[in-house]
Amino acid sequence: LALKDTLEKKNRIIEETNIQLESRIRELSLLFSASRLFSSSLRLDEVLSNLCKMVGQTLSIDRFVVYLLESDKEVFTVRGTHGIDNGEMEELARRILEENEILRTVHRERRSIYIRDLTQDLRSRFLHERFGLVGSLLAIPVVAAQEVIGVMYFNRPAVDAFHIDELSLLQVVSNIAAIAIRNASLYEITEELAVQDPLTGLLNRRALSQQLENEWERSIRFDVPLSVIMID
User: Fold this and answer.
1) C-alpha separations of 142 from 1, 16, 96, 127 in Å
2) In angstroms, rounded to a whole number, what is the distance separating the alpha carbons of residues 32 and 28?
3) Distance CA 173, CA 32 (A)
4) Can you tell me the distance from the alpha carbon of 104 to that of 22, in angstroms, rounded to the nearest whole number?
5) pLDDT tens-digit map of 121-168
């Protein structure tokens, strides 16, 4: 009986260990997939779209919002959502930094905030009363190159719906997404600088050459004449 009891305890330990290993393998697989997905494009809109799809489909998050900080460092705008209709998105997009305590705190203190019950926390009164959000909310800063460039909101309708291990996983997902978002943003800036005069914002000679080449190929393909008017 003593040996049987010992064996049962050992089996329980093995089963618990296997469950933990399976969970870690799933997490590593998810992070690997996220890294490949986010690095598959240098277009910011595509990166954000992939992020929203992954959060909704793979992580089973009911509502998700990505705020990105504008260049003036004062206003957050909504750049991606999941589980939110267009009307709500337009309303969210008008919210500036000073009107949302959660957003402001995450940005200023560079730390995540987990609210277990949106109806009971004073900081979430804005979200609960304005948009009717209920359940639990996780707000995570998007940090790239030691700078907060955005904030992510994860919402589930159940109270205390995020497990402690899941909080750490979502933080890592946010870090991976931050790198992809920053790279895509820098790529867009580089593209703009390549064809724009930095002083006036007007298209430069390179842009003209590219456009002429495109129009020349179009005229050949459709067998139509091409004319160029230059005005000084």
Assistant:
1) 56, 34, 17, 20
2) 6
3) 10
4) 37
5) 877 777 777 777 789 999 999 998 888 888 998 999 999 888 887 888
